[in-house]
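General statements about sequence and structure are easier to judge against a single worked case. For one protein, we set the task of working out the structure tokens from the amino acid sequence alone. This step matters because it turns folding into a mapping between discrete strings. The amino acid sequence and the backbone structure tokens for this protein are reproduced below.
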Amino acid sequence: MSAPAGGRPSGSWRRGRWMLLLMMVVCAAPIVVSYFMYYVVKPRGGTTNYGALIEPQRPIPGSLVVTGADGRAVPLATLRGRWLMISVDGGACGEPCVTKLYFMRQIRATQGEERERVVTVWLRTDDAPVADVLKTAYPDTRMLRADPAALAQWLPATDTTKDTDHIYLVDPNGNLMMRFPAHPDPSKVKSDITKLLKWSRIG
């Protein structure tokens, strides 16, 4: 629709332009609002997030393949669509590993009706068998075998830690967006995840 002679747009032309802009805003709103409210508005008196924001976000690598208990290899990216809490450890799973699995299970459980939007994932870095007691204690945790070198490239640690020291959070679009500290405070991790689920309608 062209503007009339004289260079001033007609009322219908202006309305069409505003409708187009409105459609663009509506499409982008769910993700933009959730991140704005969480990282800019900072609810509850200006407190900041506990987890470290990963900038820039790191999409799940298309080449990162995981293997489940059935022996079938699939891209990790097939888990996109829900929030992923990820822990990395060997199959022997010592005390620090068990502690992370316990924290993830409890944090997910405390989300109430929102818990179905969260998937807990244990990415195992070797072929050591998983103890039956762990399978029984954490039946809802996805226990998947992954290449440790590929995980180390994707999951950032700090100068004094390894990827096995942290719990990571991936958003439903498949972007790694947060890393929680080693030996985390589970109540603070829960607070971060609760706020993200509150302000985001994706996943």
